[in-house]
Amino acid sequence: MTSTPHAASPQLRPPAGERYPAFKRHIPERLFYLLPALMWLALAIRYRSLTLPSAANPAMEAGGLWGESKSQGLDLFGPLGRAQLARFACLQCDADAPLDCALAAMAEAGLDFPVVAKPDRGYQGWGVRLIQRAEDLAAYLAVQPPGAAVLLQELVDLPGEAGIFYLRHPDQARGRIVSMAFVYPPHVIGDGRRSVAQLVQADKVLRPNSAIYRGRHPESWETVPGPGAFHVLTNARSARLGAVYRDALPLVTPQLEALIDEISREIPDFHFGRFDIRFRSPEDLGAARDFRILELNGAGAEMLHFWAGDGTLRQAYRALWRQYRWLFAIGATMRARGARPVGLRGMIRLQRQQEALRRIYPPSS
User: Which runs of consecutive H residues, i.e. helices, occur in 143-287?
Assistant: First the structure.
C-alpha cells in the first residue's frame, strides 16, 4: 500500500476494536509468508512457470509483479482514469541541474508545493517524503542515487485512504472489485495516564518503529493524550510502519464498481491489481465521487482486507490462496494469447535492483 503523506485534513478514525489481527502480533512476517510461498510454488509447478503472473498485465513492466515503475503504470491510464488521477511528474536524477529539471517538470504537470516525492521504483513506503519548498526538494534529490527516477505527485487533501482490488479474467467483458480496505495511519488511543512513548512501547506491533515515530513528532512524544484521544504517529500509511486496516468490501456500491471497471478497461490488457486512492468520505466513495487515484499496483499487489483487526490466520491464507489462483489462471490465459512472462533471471534482476535502491532511499516522512 502506498504510504503517501496527507495534508492537515480531518482524520477519519477507524471503528472501535482491535487494530491488528492476532496473527500479526504473534507471527513474524517471514514465518507468516512461508505457507503463501508454498502456495505459489504449487501453482508454479501446476502451470509450469514460476513467473507466470508477470504475464497477467502485459502492458505493465513485469506485469507489476516486482520492481515495476510506478509512473509507467500511471501513464497507461485512459481519459476516464486520468480525470481521477493525482497529477504527477517523473524525472531522472542524472541531470547537471536536478532542481531546475524538477521545477520545470512540476510546472509542465501543473504542480506546485507542497508535493509528495517518492521513488519511481518504490516499495512499502520507503523514501516517501512530503516536500514543502524548493529547498526541501533539492535536499531530497541530492541523496538519490544517480540515474534513479523520482515521482513528484500533488498532495491530495482528502482524509480517507483505501486499497481497491480489481479483477477481470481476460475472457470476461467486465471485471469486479474483489476486495476493498480502508487504511488508517499508525496511531495510539489515549487513556489519560500514559504518554505517547509509553503507549507505543505497550504495543507489540508499534514498538519496533518507536524511533521512527519519535523522529516524526518529537514535540509530542512525551505528552499524555486524553482518554479516547486519537493520536497519529506518522502520516505514512504503510503496513511496515503499523498502518491499520478495516474491511470495506460491504461498502462497495454498483456505482463505484462500475467506475473502477471502466477505468480499468481503459488500461491496455489490465486484469489484476490494486488502486490506492484517497477519498473524502465513505458516502462520497460509494457514490463514486470525490476520490483521487494515487497509485496502481499490478500482479504483485496484495488484498488488504485480511489485515483488519478481526481477521484470522485462516481467513488470511484463504484470501491469499484465492488471489494466487486467480493470478496464475489469468497469466496462463494471457500466455496462451501470446504474452510472455518475464524470465526468472529478469525477475531476479528487478528484485535486486529494487533492494539495492531501497537501502539508499532517504527516510519516509
Answer: 196-201, 210-216, 254-266, 282-286
Question: What is the crossing angle of helices 313-336 and 34-47, to 10°?
Answer: 30
Residue 364, domain member (yes or no):
no
User: Domain residues for 108?
Assistant: 87-155
Looking at the domain assignment, is residue 206 inside a domain?
yes
Burial class (CB in 10 A: 0-12, 13-18, 19+), 279: buried
CATH number at residue 316: 3.30.470.20
Residues 329 and 270 in one domain: yes
Alpha helices, H only, 110-176: 134-142
Please state the domain count of the chain: 3
pLDDT in tens, the chain (365 residues): 544 554 434 568 898 899 999 999 999 999 999 999 999 999 999 999 999 999 999 999 999 998 889 999 999 999 999 999 999 999 987 766 689 999 999 999 999 999 999 999 877 777 888 999 999 999 999 888 888 899 999 999 999 999 999 999 999 999 999 999 999 999 999 999 999 999 999 999 999 999 999 998 899 999 999 999 999 998 888 888 999 999 999 999 999 999 999 999 999 999 999 999 999 999 999 999 999 999 999 999 999 999 999 999 999 999 999 999 999 999 999 999 999 999 999 888 888 887 777 777 766 66
Domain match, 246 and 162 both? yes
* Final residue belonging to a domain, choices 155, 175, 205: 155
Tell me the whole-structure pTM to 2 decimals.
0.93
